[in-house]
Amino acid sequence: MSNSCAVNYGIKLEQETEYTDELAEQFAKEAGGLAPRPNEQNDETNERGVFVRQPNSFIVPFGEKEGEHKADDGRYAIYWAHGCNWSNRPVIARDLLGLENVIKDQTTSHSGKTNKYGHGFSDQKDFKDPITGVHFLSEFYKNANPFYKGRATTPTLVDVKEKKAVNNDYHRLSNYIEVQFRKYQPVDAPDLYPKAYRKEIDEFNDWLFPHINNGHYRMAFGVSWEAYNEAYEDFFDSLEKLDKRLETNRFIFGDYITDSDIRAYVSLIRWETGYFRSIGPMKKRITEYKNIWGYLRELYSIPQFKKYSFFKEGRGIGSSKGFFKGYEERIVPLIPFEEIWKTDHERAKLSEDPENLFLKHPKGETPEDYQSEISETIWNSPSWDDREPTNYRPDYDVTVNPLKGKLRNEK
User: Fold this and answer.
1) Same-domain pairing of 33 and 159
2) 259, 96 in Cβ contact below 8 A?
3) Which residues contact 162 (CB under 8 A, 6 or more apart)?
4) What is the spatial distance between Cα 20 and Cα 8, in angstroms, rounded to a whole number?
5) Which domain holds residue 381?
6) Helices (H) and strands (E) in the chain, counts
7) Which of 149, 182, 215 is at the close of a domain?
8) Is 225 in the same domain as 192?
9) CB of 79 within 8 A of CB of 158?
10) What is the DSSP code (8-state) at residue 106?
11) Strand runs (DSSP E) across 64-152, as ranges?
């Protein structure tokens, strides 16, 4: 089963009927003739065998301009998958911002035995989305654009009243939640995306995407030695840079957690606990990067991060056939993840404000003051060359925090 995210399907409910491929085929016909899910290795690798991830297609921003989506209480739901690092981001941001009752969420799972039609709802009653009644994530895409040909991906923000996909731009989706949904956030919600420093945060996030967030997929879906090796070297070189930055910064931009920390966390925990299985020998385990390891454990101590960590679920347990049992079956159930990931809070000494993990909004700032246009990203360019990871080499030093000492809470 191919999937761009290492999807966790969670605990399957008892169903009277087995979810077969034939049943999925029937549901697809009833939905108006859905096409099977495209395959990354067939459709998203270039002539060098490099995995060039499809651009996000539903990228109309949230805002107040004509044609833009409007933030609304109860209108939208995040469709996401447990093991998908892209889709863990917006639910973590939503929960940190206290928006659980404003933006709903629903997890996806496979469709049929072989996942032929991509994200479905195999763990739900009658294999249907309990919010809207559809059988496949791709139905929302078809409702929004009958001519859409790409993969239906998680996360997708769906207008559940119209049953249409609204935004699947994981590059900027958390930013829309942080900014355009500010009016629905509690007064004391943390400032994850401070207005004065959005340029710096966006710049870092656009570096993080090809080098670390997408590193696993570049190795897993690349179909040439050249592509695999480029991605391998790029990823581990980037880890060294990130580790150096975290040597003198409690979090990526200093004393407080920002949007960038959410993005780094969801990828790096999967490298240590699961992704390594599909990329071959690792130069170093994540636990061998002293600063990254301490940083991840501190984030894990925060309930909203811990909730979406999913260490043991859906890891693809190995077969017990043959003389040796696989690592996944023999060892993983015995790993005391919570004990290992406890933090000793040593990183607090790097902060000038060690008792606070989050930046507060300035006194008197209104939701209107907080608004700005969210930048576009090169990673949604229609050009394959623009999205080719090795063509992206920013001219700034990622080991240096440009906001060191600038993010400050009022005393």
Assistant:
1) yes
2) no
3) 143
4) 19
5) 188-391
6) 14, 4
7) 182
8) yes
9) yes
10) E
11) 76-80, 104-107
E strands, 162-239, are 164-167
Is residue 327 pLDDT above 80, yes or no?
no
| pLDDT tens-place string over residues 223-235 | 898 999 999 999 9
- Decide the pairing of beta strands 104-107 and 76-80: parallel
22 pLDDT higher than 50: yes
- Tens digits of residue pLDDT in 284-318: 999 999 999 999 999 999 999 999 998 876 444 44
| Phi/psi at 233 (5° precision) | -65, -40
Out of 119, 147, 182, pick the residue that ends a domain: 182
Query: What pLDDT, on a 0 to 100 scale, did the predictor assign at position 5?
Result: 54
Q: How far apart are alpha carbons 31 and 352 in whole angstroms?
A: 56
Indicate the pTM of the whole model.
Answer: 0.89
Per-residue pLDDT reduced to its tens digit, 65-116: 999 999 999 999 999 999 888 999 999 999 999 999 999 999 999 999 999 9
Compute CA 143 distance to the chain's CA centroid, rounded to the nearest angstrom.
24
CA dihedral (239, 242, 246, 251) positive or negative: negative
Question: What phi and psi, each to the nearest 5 degrees, are found at residue 232?
Answer: -60, -50
Q: What is the 3-state secondary structure (H, E, C) of 288-332?
A: HCHHHHHHHHHHHCCHHHHHCCCCCCCCCCCCCCCCCCCHHHHCH
Is 275 within 8 Å of 300 (Cβ atoms)? no
Provide the CATH number for the domain around residue 302: 1.20.1050.10
191 Cβ contact list (under 8 Å, min separation 6): 358, 359, 360, 361
- pLDDT for position 320: 46
